[in-house]
Amino acid sequence: APLRAETLGPVTDELGVVKILKGQPILIGGYASQSGGDTNQGIAELHGAELALKDFGGKVRGFPVKFNTEDAQCTAEGGQTAATKLAANRQLVAVVGPSCSSGARVGAPILWNLGIPSIGIGATAPGLTATDRPAGFKGFLRVVPNDLKSAEFQVDWVRSKLGLGSVATIHDGSPYTEQLVRAFEKDFVAKGGKVVASEAIGPSDNDLRPVLTRIAGRKPDLIFTPVFVSSTGFLLRQKGEVAGLKDTPVLGGEGVFSANIIEAAGPAVIGFRIVGPSTEQFSQRFPSFVKAFETEFGEAPTGGFSAWGYDAMLVALKGGEAVAKADADGNLYIGRKALRDALFATRDLPGLTGKLTCSAEGDCGASIYAIWEFADASPTSFAPGTNPKKVFP
Amino acid sequence: MPDPSDLLLDVRALGKRFGGLVAVREVDLAVRRGSVHAIIGPNGAGKTTAFNCITSFVKPTSGRILLDGERIDGLAPHRIAAHGVARTYQNVRLFANMTAIENVLVGEHLRLRTSFLDIVLRNGRFHREETAARARARDLLDFVGIGPRAGLLARAMPYGDQRRLEIARALATRPRLLMLDEPAAGMNPAEGMALVRLIERIRDDLGVTVLLIEHHMRVVMAISERITVFDRGAVLAEGAPNDIQNDDRVIAAYLGTRSTQEAHAVKLRAEARTA
Amino acid sequence: MSSFDIVTSSFRIHRRRGHAVAEAVRAGAFAGAAAIAFALVGAYLIMDRRFVVEDIITLAQTVVLLFVLGGGHAAARSAARDGATAATAIGFGALAGLVAGLLFAAAILLVAHVGLRSHLVAASPMLVRAVTFLGAPGSAVAAAVLVTAGTAAGSVGAAAAMLRADRRTAVLIGLAALLGAGLFRDVFAGLLHNLPGLAALEPMVFGVGGVTPVAAAVIAVGAAGLSLVLHHRRRPPIAASTRRRIEGVLLVVLLVLVPLVTDAFVAQVAMLVGLYVLMAMGLNIELGLAGLVDLGFVAFFAVGAYTMALACSSDPRAAVHLSFWLALPLATTIAAVAGLLFGLPVLRVRGDYLAMATLGLGEIVRVLVVSDAMKPYLGGSQGIIEIARPSLGGWTLDTPLQFYFLALILAALVGLVSWRLQHSRIGRAWLAIREDEDVAQALGIDLVAAKLLAYTVGAAFAGMAGAVFAALIGSVYPHSFQLAISINVLAILVIGGLGSLPGVVVGSLVLIGLPELLREFGEFRYLFYGIALVVTMHLKTEGLWPAVARQEATDA
Amino acid sequence: MSKVLEVSDLTVAYGAIRAVRNVSFRVEPGELVTIVGANGAGKTTVLNALCGLRDIRGGRIRLGTTDITHLPPQDRVALGLSQVPEGRRLFPRMTVAENLEIGAYTRREAAAVAADLEWVLELFPRLRERGRQLAGTLSGGEQQMVAMGRAVMARPDVLVLDEPTMGLAPQIVDLVLDALRAINANGVTVLLVEQNAYRALEIADRAFVLESGEIVMTGTGAELLDHPDIRNAYLGYDA
Amino acid sequence: MAPRHERLEALAEWRRQSTWVDGVLLAIRLGVAATILVGFGGSLVAGTYSIGNIASFVVFGLTIGCIYALVALGYTMVYGILRMINFAHGDVMMVGSFGGLFAADALSGAGVLEAAPLLSLPLVVAAGMVVGAGVALGVERIAYRPFLHVRSLAPLICAIGMSFVLQYAARGLFGSRNRAYPGFGWMERTFEVGGLTIPMLQVVAFVAAGVMLAGLLAVVRLTRLGRAMRAVAEDRDAAALVGIDVGRVIVATFAIGGAMAGVAGVLYALVFKQITVFLGFSLGIKGFAAAILGGIGNLPGALVGGLVLGLAEALGPALLLEGFALPAPYQFKDVIGYAMLVMVLIFRPQGLLGERLADKRA
Lengths: 393, 275, 556, 239, 362
Ligand SMILES: Nc1ncnc2c1ncn2[C@@H]1O[C@H](COP(=O)(O)OP(=O)(O)OP(=O)(O)O)[C@@H](O)[C@H]1O
Ligand SMILES: Nc1ncnc2c1ncn2[C@@H]1O[C@H](COP(=O)(O)OP(=O)(O)OP(=O)(O)O)[C@@H](O)[C@H]1O
Ligand SMILES: [Mg+2]
Ligand SMILES: [Mg+2]
What we know:
C: 3 domains; E: 362 residues; ABC transporter involved in vitamin B12 uptake, BtuC; binds adenosine-5'-triphosphate; binds magnesium ion; ABC_transp_permease (chain E); transport (chain E); transmembrane (chain E); transmembrane helix (chain E)
């Protein structure tokens, strides 16, 4: 059914109004990769979102919030099906997710065409929030920063701060890592650096020594690789076994910002640097977030994306709180267009990763980065600030 | 030596080795058109191996095989079938999970001509051919005497019927030469004699030359015009049934002197003659 | 003989049965172990968030309850078989329930008081809280409640076992209907919403998370009653063939009508089912008929999808710009050629060797597609986006429903072609090859030609599915073409019934449709999927809709 | 040492078709009994039911004092019931020697097994030179010899044979039947299904005629051999 | 060289006997040879790698190859007897690997691991074996035994189902994070042989694979159980007829195969030092590939197949792809592995050491 203006209770909205009866919950949807190769990432994100809901008190304007999640895998068709399934419930007000750009590319328009805004978690493809994006994406925001920005920051650090002239890159064939690598390479070359090796592996490869040998032959000053925890663990451990790479520094991506990388890489994690949020909030709140996460779900987040899940949920809840209106009988009304606008109008919202401010295109990520370095190989020592500690800026 | 143009199958100096074991050595075999020709010989003499060479189930080590003057050795088995050679197997090899009639229809495959397009469109050509094929298959099942069991799964049939079905399936390819490997095995003497009549009809009514391996002497003697005796891979003797029966070497190597079976066969032939 | 052929021996291995008490304890222990596994694997918590009956009983509770009911039922059955009276049998059921309850309670106490979490991540305080009804979480009272509930449930299960067969069926159907309504709440709610005149019913029947209590009672009692009535109405006996025909017609009606009256999600799922039907029909030609295993089948799907993408996208890599209707046959043809090329090298490879060879070829295709080396032509891991939707005289197909009908029409077409091929000399040749290659060849069947034809036709069907898939999604990514899809299609064939066309449809419905409906249980979806595969095969070894009812039901 | 084999009311069905119906018979210790019947009469089915390869629909089977109706096949072998199955069923990729040795799988006394092996090789001298050949590559007749040898190696009390002379050269047929008589003379009870009805009846103490799954006639071997119906239907004198 | 007319005659004979398929296959063979030559030559010319590098690759390849081989042994065991691929085998290995981890954790908690690393290793391996065997028995019970008497692909599908169940149940039970495997001090050492650094672990892997193969061969060739296994493999009914308890033999086979998977799991973990619940799937496929490559059902074949596959993956990109100057050649590691597999099967459809599948006996 095409969206049309509607007036229910005290709310008039050009895209329709969701009416929540007294005592009923407000529905927020979530979709992420909960099965397939990127299972860990998706689960961590949704769990992060759940924690945000918990921290928020579980309620918006006295109405309990119910979080309905669906599995989007990390594929276009998964995103499409999950989004369609979420959208089938007319009571849904907003959606958190998905984890992958391929899913967002298909899923976000499905949701927005029904007036449901969605807040991406791991979908970093620049095109999703480009100024010339199609109309279907006008209801799409994301708390995770756009690849281009993180690349810019990292290149800046490598080129200007460290003054390194050559890098080798490795991606694992996933759209996410490949995109980051390409953005990095492009910027790096633009800033006068040289990409001496541009390699790729498979996500389930476990013996990376041959590819590292190849890289060693090119003598890069640094290896940039945003691959996930397993692969990073193999890479760091095996790097030492390859002649000529022992002292080559490695810079990793946000995907491994977790305690788990310490376990995966063992002693080799020391000196490993990753990019991550830089803000005060992050330094202060992330450690306790990890604690809470562990108590709630039995293990610490395995990848680096749980914080984005948290922030996405936060944005959604805040937006809902801002626009929901109650009538005399105690029913609640949320205007769809109003909610979308409220989400896009998010300013300086103190999230887990920093102060969230959404641009007109929907980029809400704090995008204030830091380089973090691991200093301790004990898995229990994970505590952003000390291990890893911020080395730049 | 018979007139070469009279020969349907002409095997010259056929040899087959398995590693160190010579299963068939320098075998010459000439089967006359329109005849029933039997191969007998002790177990392990190489009879089945010779069959396998002729039908390209195994690749002969040496020798040539001519069908109607044309060389067929070394050709892929389906091309040999297309030349008009069909066979049955010592250990029955039916399509166990297909019905009797389906088994026969597979045999007709070689003679069916409908194209992929005909089949997809189900045009008149397809229907005509399919109807005719089914009718022929039923005729063949009747011919071998298992018409009433057309709808039974092959593996649910008793051993003797399975042997008949195998013959029907082989006949469906419309062979010039039909090769039967111990068709009477698993049949009692009475059933064996029914088989003899069937083989005669195959030769006379269908005009198919038959080459068979058999250990049942009653069957062999009752039906074959010529007999080749194998022993240890080589031809021990060849000739008409009477000569073979009385050949001392054959008796020593194969028939056995005490063979009551042989005695029965002789008796039977005598009866058949007088009848 | 190999994995993909038959495995058989004529005798069964029987389990020796023990004394009724031992059997009851065994049944109880099984139920308890199942419940514990269900809890510790984490499924309890996620399913505890869903109500079956709104605010009364959650899905998780239902599942545990069903385990214990089943245990009591089994114990009572086995006692009754040994000649126990109804009362004693119910006693045995209670015993089973008690055992199950004790085990479960013990496990929960262990979780509550001993730190198991370093190894078992779901052994959480939340779990303890979730299974506590009375008393403090992890307290003796809470445990006692669990044990009592277990005993009661075991008795109820046993009592059900003592009912007359028709009543037992009625109870079962009533419960199943209720569970179905609760589990597939969204679907049925959508259905009510869309059916004219029934929209008002929706809020009465369904709450936010499940069925409302009143509706639950109505559904359960109604279904049970209906089952009883149907059972006792004298029906004229229906011939098996007529029955099959009726079932077939019903299936078709279902396929056409249901997506029409439900929501976009059902249409979307139906659409995916349709695509898998296309693929499975293709594999059915290869495996079901010709006996050629193919674990790289997804490659043809990929070829179809990428052809469509490269023919209809606005991406600069696109070679040509065709309309969907031209690209579809093109994709089908190119996939068929791919099938031919696949077939050529592996022609002489048999059985499991063939499985591995095709699996390898499929993986090769996938890696090629994702690779940086091919990125200039195929888009690498970023795929190809902005594939134009099919349009017909200015009318553009874009809803899942429209695509569904497109897939349905194609499936019907392909089904017809399949059926005709199967019942022709070509189909018979394929079957013969499956049964005995050597003999088939000796009968004059050209193995090479027949096998290649099977590969080509199978690949064409899969390519067609891929093409529609690409147009539906509007983009293609290499990650959509995993080995899992090939395995899935294989499972569809076997679950449906190898070589059976209606089986393909039923198999796709079950293996694609149901998991889609379970999407909300995300991380546990494949766990349930795996269990479903196992259970289905145990219940219907020949598949849900076997090719032909062969007469050898009990035979090897 | 020898045991009685008693079958009562045996019924075996394939799906809805009852291939063997209420068959009862008894084989006394030390007897040699043969079952005669046309194609599809149900002979193989009876034997498979005896050996536990086929689930039975009804009836009881007793071996000596033990009710073996529901025992799995291997337990029946251990109790002394061995079969030479139709179609030989050798282990094709094991050598001839291994095939023979595995026949004694249930036995542990090495010396006695070795002695039996020697005896088998005396019965079938041809096998001696084939000890290391794979059984699957033997000719049909050679395989049949191995099959018999294998069953004998179990030193059974009751030996059941399904068409042991199928595919054997006439000379070997004599040999096999002689061997069978020798085995029987050693005290082994023998139940023989044989298409070569003349020879079977000749050596049998008693015989049953099975028709369409039912026993229609019994008698001593000699009686049946002279019975006109038998002569017509199974010996082919009418041909 | 044979005289001209003889060569002509041979050609004519070939033409008479061959069809177009033979021609195509010949073309494929020539194409493969040409590709390999060009790639190999190109790689040599490119000279990216030193001899030392290549020697290291060989060591890497042999190590991972040993792990493939151990997985393949389990496949081949079960296949040999049931003629069925146990699709859940990779996941049995994963669970075995976790069994070893928990044992190591316990030992470490008790201080034994550090105090007696040499003694702890067998304990950890044993834990892996026991757990692997136990899970394999579960798989047998659920996926195979109920279907012994029927003719269908049900066991295959059930095994696939069990693979999902094991994977996702393990995920639910143990969580999805990567787990560090404890090191055993003495195994972390390396030593030099002719300028080549060889880690002790590699030697351990090699020895383990060899010992396991020898043990299995001994069981199959020499023991009563082994003979029974072969008999059951060939003809289940006939085996029962000579008094073999078929059910028990199958159970024993699964147990051995599962124990083998357990060893593989622990060894994998020792070499690569971290495990997750998802490691079973891809390693399972590789193990399957290795088993097929070597000739499934053939025990030495499993070892050969594993080593060859490992070597191909480690060396292929360096020796073949370098010559084509492809970007990111290591992305094609699996392509090389599978392509080699397919090639081998084209030339030898029965695998490297496999016997002809069907000797055409009529
Ligand atoms: N594939 C093979 N490998 C090794 N030896 C073989 C093979 N096939 C047959 N033989 C041997 O070749 C010889 C001839 O066997 P063949 O089957 O041709 O005998 P036959 O004359 O048909 O005997 P029978 O009458 O017993 O069937 C036998 O000794 C047999 O063992
Ligand atoms: N697997 C099966 N499925 C269905 N029916 C079967 C099966 N096996 C045998 N039958 C049927 O059972 C009946 C008896 O068969 P059986 O094999 O016991 O006969 P037989 O007396 O041994 O015959 P033969 O002398 O040919 O070996 C036959 O009618 C046959 O069609
Ligand atoms: Mg022979
Ligand atoms: Mg029989």
